[in-house]
Amino acid sequence: MSLVGKKAPLFKAPAVINGEEIVQDFSLEQFIGEKEVVFFFYPKDFTFVCPTEILAFQEKLAEFEKRGVAVVGASTDTEETHLAWLLTARDNGGIEGVTYPLVADVSKTIANNYGVLAGDWNYSEEGELVFEGAPIAYRGTFLIDKAGIVRHETVNDFPLGRNIDEMIRLVDALHHVEKHGEVCPANWEEGKEAMEATREGVSSYLSSNK
Fold first, then answer.
1. Which one of 1, 63, 101, 146 has the fewest beta carbons within 10 angstroms of its own beta carbon?
2. Per its UniProt entry, which superkingdom is the organism in (predicted)?
3. CA atoms in the 13 A half-sphere facing the CB of 143
């Protein structure tokens, strides 16, 4: 089920912040009323597509921050594994230099609550409790507003990397809607024409964009 329009599930979990410090009680609650959050899940540390995404978010971090948006990543790895990866040089497969928080969802409850865990527990014919599927997270991405409401979500399968610029576009669209009360049509970008959510507004927009 989609979380769009619903409260983002809150949690307290270990995380690595500032690329070097482990904290035990990291929570998205600290951002409510203060900032929007791009909260994203990735499958595993020390893999292949994952570092390209994590580093791409870091490269665009200033763009998110100037828009008042926090970026937070999460996987089902431990906080110690996160730290080891963060301390590993990029030319050796690491993500050294990443400064935004990486959450350790070892219990897999956060991924499960966000609907991105790639499997589930079940009972076998012998009555044994087994995990069916992959006990890691899909590439889920959530845009959470200042009230703690999920305004956008996407979930990619393991081999499909994200477009970070698209997340910036969605942040801009959310800000435009909140500031101007207009809606953003297909392929809208900052600086382009939006429209009023009326028949007249749609007609005017379509006429001017023939």
1. 1
2. Bacteria
3. 18
Domain annotation covers residue 143? yes
pTM for this prediction: 0.94
Domain contains 5: no
Same domain, 19 and 49: yes
Counted residue by residue, the chain has a size of 210
51 and 151 assigned to the same domain:
yes
Closest to 190 in 3D by CA, of 167, 205, 173: 173
pLDDT band at 70 (very low <50, low <70, confident <90, very high): very high
pLDDT tens, residue by residue, 173-200: 999 999 999 999 999 999 888 888 888 8
Residues 172 and 157 in one domain: no
- Name the residue range of residue 57's domain: 13-161
User: Catalytic site residues?
Assistant: 50
Contacts of 32 (CB under 8 A, 6+ apart): 146, 147, 148
* Burial class for 55, CB neighbours closer than 10 Å (0-12, 13-18, 19+): middle
Residues 131 and 79 in one domain: yes
70 to 101, 114, 121, 182: CA distances (angstroms): 9, 18, 32, 24
The count of domains in the chain is 2
What does the block give as tokens for 44? 């595993």
- In the prediction, which pLDDT does 157 show? 98
